[in-house]
Amino acid sequence: MVTKSFIMPTVLLALSMFTNLAMAADPIVTESTASSTVTTNGSMETTVKSPPPSAISPQLGSNSNSDLCTIGVAGAVQTQILGISAGMTYTEENCIRLKNAKTLYDMGMKVAAVSTMCQDEKVFDAMMMAGTPCPYEGKIGAAAKIGWDSHEESKREKITAKEKMDVKQTATTGGLSLLALLLLL
Q1: Are 70 and 91 in contact (CB under 8 A)?
Q2: What is the dihedral of CA 126, 130, 133, 134, to 10 degrees?
Q3: What DSSP element (H or E) covers 70?
Q4: pLDDT at site 101
Q5: pLDDT computed for residue 97 by the predictor
Q6: Which residues of 77-111 are buried (b: 16+ CB within 10 A; e: fewer)?
Q7: Which residues are registered as beta bridge partners of 86?
Q8: Is residue 32 part of a domain?
Q9: 141 lies in a domain?
Q10: DSSP labels for 108-158?
């Protein structure tokens, strides 16, 4: 049987042995010295890729509403530094005349609708050549022909080319003006 007096000294002896082992180890000391030099030679090239500058012309036209009787003309020019865009609309007179004549005809005013169409010189001449003259002060047929023949001063005046430029000439003039402006830049 193990006595109390035997256990206590044995435990103390075991503890003292492990304590001595832990104290017996010397600490590890490391010393180092390092020196380095880095030399870099080279060249670098940077390429920036960006979208080209753009001048965007406005969309003008009767594409969105075909009931307007307008013609849109637009254009744009872009250089590396400056961009210009412009646009204009022109009213097409014959389209307005046709719409007015159709509206009058739909309201039952057939003579007024024909009179509206006769404002065009080509229609007026075609009606006279066909033997069905344009209405004259409410008269139609032979009475209108007598009215037109007897009242020369009442005949509609012919539109001269100098008084009114057509749409193509106006668009060409506008385009050439824009080109001349760009050449000045």
Answers
A1: yes
A2: -40
A3: strand 70-78
A4: 94
A5: 92
A6: beeeeeeeebebebebeebebeeebeebbeeeeee
A7: 75
A8: no
A9: yes
A10: T-HHHHHHHHTTSHHHHHHHHHTT-PPPBTTB-THHHHHHHHH-GGGSPPP
Q: Whole-prediction pTM value?
A: 0.48
Q: Which domain holds residue 133?
A: 93-154
In a domain, 31, yes or no: no
Contact 158, 121 (CB under 8 A): yes
Whether the pLDDT of residue 8 is over 80: the answer is no
Whether residue 150 lies inside any domain: the answer is: yes
Count of domains for the chain = 1
pLDDT digits (tens, 9 = 90+) for 153-184: 555 554 444 445 565 666 677 777 777 766 66
Contacts 24+ apart (CB under 8 A), 135-138: 135/111, 138/111
Q: Which residue is associated with the tokens 């830049």?
A: 185
Strands 83-91 and 70-78: antiparallel
Most confident of 20-24, 73-77, 179-183: 73-77
Instruction: Report how far Cα 19 is from the mean position of its chain's Cα atoms.
Output: 89
Which sign, positive or negative, has the C-alpha torsion 130, 136, 139, 143?
negative
Long-range contacts at 123-131 (CB < 8 A, ≥ 24 apart): 124/156
